[in-house]
Amino acid sequence: MFTDVDGRALADFPRPSVAVDTALMTVIPATHDTLARLGVLLVRRPPQSVGAAAGWALPGTFLHEGETLAEAVRRSLEVKAGVTGREPQQLHVFDDPARDDRGWVLSVAHLDVLSFVDLELLRKPANSRIVALPSRLRLPYDHLAIIDLATERLRREYRAHPDPRRLLHESFTIADLRAVHEAVAGRELQKDTFRRLMIDELESLPAAAEGRRGRPAQLFGRSARHAE
Amino acid sequence: MFTDVDGRALADFPRPSVAVDTALMTVIPATHDTLARLGVLLVRRPPQSVGAAAGWALPGTFLHEGETLAEAVRRSLEVKAGVTGREPQQLHVFDDPARDDRGWVLSVAHLDVLSFVDLELLRKPANSRIVALPSRLRLPYDHLAIIDLATERLRREYRAHPDPRRLLHESFTIADLRAVHEAVAGRELQKDTFRRLMIDELESLPAAAEGRRGRPAQLFGRSARHAE
DNA sequence: ATCAATTAGATCAAAATTGCGCTAATAAGG
DNA sequence: CCTTATTAGCGCAATTTTGATCTAATTGAT
Q: Where in chain A is the domain with CATH 3.90.79.10?
């Protein structure tokens, strides 16, 4: 076992518990009277949670030995919400030594994104819910701050590229794409400007008649040369 | 002591050691035959370091109980290099369970910035050096990746605001400012475009004759309304 | 075949941005 | 006082970007 200059091993020093928390973001589809908007997955806290920890929270877990932060995130999303196959991105480490009543805990906040349809297919409805943003729910710890960071990060990514986090499936129209981008941005985007910004990173697919009047909208896939 | 659903306390679970590593960046001033350029502070590894860990590295330390990551960064900069009074910013957590021979260690990479003059005044020359970037030195762990992340982050901040990390002192000319921005950007900037982008966030100060021929350059301070 | 509905995207004017040449202002040197 | 050196920043043309209007293309309904 390695020792430091004082002759002590790492294990001799107090160490924090390390938790991961994840803002798993999605776009809640438009209804007849609402626009599409950002949402986040929350999970139900265990029944013995008390005080501010009661109710709902972002999915999270403690880091286990031998796993990476991303592996811990995936485990927490699967166990807590039934969601698999994610690629989370780190946001920030919340490190106030007094932030958790249970002891010294660092929390590494993450962002991940999944389409609403896939999320609805995967998640366990008994233990989880999708909440539209901004939300007025009270959440424990730094979870509101995590959601804000995640929103900012996602908005920045979507400013630069067409649907970088694959909220849309394999083929979509420019109107579909713009609706998703408007949901992420939280504001309306000008259709011509939007089209010009995105078109170079899109690949035209054969248009398909939609079974309704009017010229069928061009279908697009992502350009292979701009794979994330 | 709090327990989880399995009845065990946090202390019952293996926990990682958490380290902090910092890219303390500066701008190395121009000489008669070089342009100003980015540099980073390295510290000498302890003599018993072997293999890849020998030689030079970014300053770092293990997180002690009861301190925040920023406090640990400050402690490491002071102890290792004699540098005080910093406000580090988190970059990324390096979490490969096998990344350190000594055991399970997470490293939280940070960025901080200090003017060359102040850094030269503070640092211990015996234990530290400032290395121009890009550097061809071999560094241990993820230190090259940390420097790359720090460089990107700094470039992004400098794109948007005049000298956000206060590399310049209280008053400066537009030429001084542009030289610093060019050092950070790693490329030449067009003087009129640069001036137009920055001028609104600058506050004119009375010009002072410079003791050399020609119209004295306008002096600026940072506009109070755009305080970081 | 004609009409209505819907989309694609060209065209255009306006606005914004860029970079260069140049002059006025202001200093020190002679 | 004149000359040289240096900076500030204006004026301008070129380029880029934006957003609106409008027409052509293409569908389903009649």
A: 10-146
Cis geometry, peptide bond prior to residue A134 (ω within 30 degrees of 0): yes
Tell me the CATH number for domain B10-150.
3.90.79.10
Residue closest to A127 by CA, chosen among A26, A25, A47, A29: A47
Measured CA to CA, the distance from residue B96 to residue A16 in angstroms comes to 17
Of A136, A139, A142, A76, give the one whose Cα is nearest residue A112. A76
Record: contact B65-A18, CB cut-off 8 A = no
Q: D6 C1' – B161 CA distance, angstroms?
A: 27
Q: What is the ipTM of this complex?
A: 0.86
> Which CATH number is associated with domain A10-146?
3.90.79.10
With an 8 Å Cβ cutoff, is B145 touching chain A? no
pLDDT in tens, chain B (228 residues): 455 555 566 667 788 999 999 999 999 998 877 889 999 999 998 777 666 556 899 999 999 999 999 999 999 999 999 999 889 999 999 999 988 888 899 999 999 999 999 999 999 998 899 999 998 888 888 999 999 999 999 999 999 899 999 999 888 999 999 999 999 999 999 999 999 999 989 998 887 777 888 889 999 988 765 544
CA B194 to C1' D11, whole Å: 18
**In CATH, what class is B161-226?**
mainly alpha
Query: Which residue from B5, B14, B66 is facing A97, i.e. has the nearest CB?
Result: B66
* Smallest CA–C1' separation from B193, nucleotide: C18
